[in-house]
Amino acid sequence: MIKIVLAAAALTIGVSYLAAGLVPKSSPQAPKPLAAAVEQPGSVTLRADDDGHFRVDATIGGRRVPMLVDTGATVVALSFEQAQSLGLIAGGDRFDLRVSTANGQVGAKRVVLRDLRIGSVSVPDVAAVVLARGAMTGNLLGMSFLGRLKRMESKGDRLVLER
Q1: Angle, vertex CA 28, rays to CA 57 and CA 32, nearest 5
Q2: Any residues with CB less than 8 A from the CB of 5 and at least 6 apart, and which?
Q3: Are 44 and 118 in contact (CB under 8 A)?
Q4: Could you state one GO biological process linked to this protein (predicted)?
Q5: pLDDT tens, 71-108?
Q6: What is the pTM of this model?
Q7: Which of 145, 1, 151, 153 is nearest to 68 (CA)?
Q8: Residues 6 or more apart whose Cβ sits within 8 Å of residue 128
Q9: Fold of 2-23+34-162
Q10: CA–CA separation, 48 vs 52, rounded Å?
C-alpha cells in the first residue's frame, strides 16, 4: 500500500508538468528530434532544452518514444495512446491503480517494459504505469529506469546517464 501511495505522489509532479503543457502535444509536422549531445558505449549525455528540461527519444520495443526526464517520478509513466501504439494495453484492460495528478485522481495500469533504451544505455524489465486515456499527453522517464543506472549526473545544462 505504501508503494502505491509513494508512486502516486511522485507521479503527481511529473504529470503536473505534462498537464501544464510543458510536453508538447503531437502536431501534424514531423517532431523535432530529441538528440543526445554526446554518446559513447553505455553512456549518453543529454542537453537541456530552452526551458531547462531534459527531453529524450527513448526506444521501447524497437519504437521511438519521446519522454521527459523526471527524477521526481518513482516509475516510468506512459500515456494511454503511447502504450496502445506499443501494444502494451488491450481493450479490456483495467486501470484500477489510482494516481494523483494536477487534474485530480486518475486510473493507471502497471506494466513492465522488457527493454527501455536511451541511445546505447539499455535497461531490461523496467516497471512502468500507463495512465488512463486523456490523463496526460506525454511520457515520463522516471526512477524505475534512472535508478538502475550506474551513474546519473547533472552539470549545468547537461545530464549524463551511464549503465
Answers
A1: 30
A2: none
A3: yes
A4: proteolysis
A5: 999 999 999 999 999 999 998 899 999 987 766 789 99
A6: 0.78
A7: 145
A8: 75, 76, 77, 78, 110, 111, 112, 113, 144
A9: Cathepsin D, subunit A; domain 1 (2.40.70)
A10: 5
